[in-house]
Design a protein that fits this description.
alpha/beta, TIM Barrel, 3-stranded parallel beta sheet, 7 helices, 8 strands, 16% strand, PseI/NeuA/B-like_N, PseI/NeuA/B-like domain-containing protein, PseI-like, N-acylneuraminate-9-phosphate synthase activity, Aldolase_TIM
Amino acid sequence: MPVNIGGKNISIVSKPFIVAEMSGNHNKSLDRALKIVEAAAKSGAHALKLQTYTADTITLDVNDGEFFINDEDSLWSGQSLYKLYQKACTPWEWHEQIMKRAKELEMICFSAPFDETAVEFLEELDVPAYKIASAEIIHLPLLEKVAATGKPLIISTGMATVSEIDDAVRKIRDSGCEQFVLLKCTSTYPASPIDS
């Protein structure tokens, strides 16, 4: 069954649907974020995906244990998750400008919400679809809220077991959504060649 995102049909017989990921690559510069949109459009991407969260909605402001990166091989060694997410998040006040620029360049723009408040915010912007991050596939209240919008979902499965994927699909369908795509992916960044 084809999935329609922003007027573009996606199926096993359609050409690949190319999505550019902004993530935190804007480095807290709106000008750079808009240049990323332009570069994505120039590259031929059909869509641009954002991430919608704040440090406060994704983690705790704690500087030890599981909330602190001690791995010496990590690019983020010595940082708390809270500080890292503060640096990486796309400010919510930028979303409308980024989406407007994408539309001007005939690109679809959607986002990955990380909590229910992000879904409410994105609904105000009328995004055409949602992406569910690998880590959020077990966040069933989030899946229910997103699925209830009636918009298509793209769901990463990188951290999920088969049972967790089944639970997610059941929750999505029970919430009235049949327009979804499951992605087989890795959640190791950067991915080693064996995991790619």
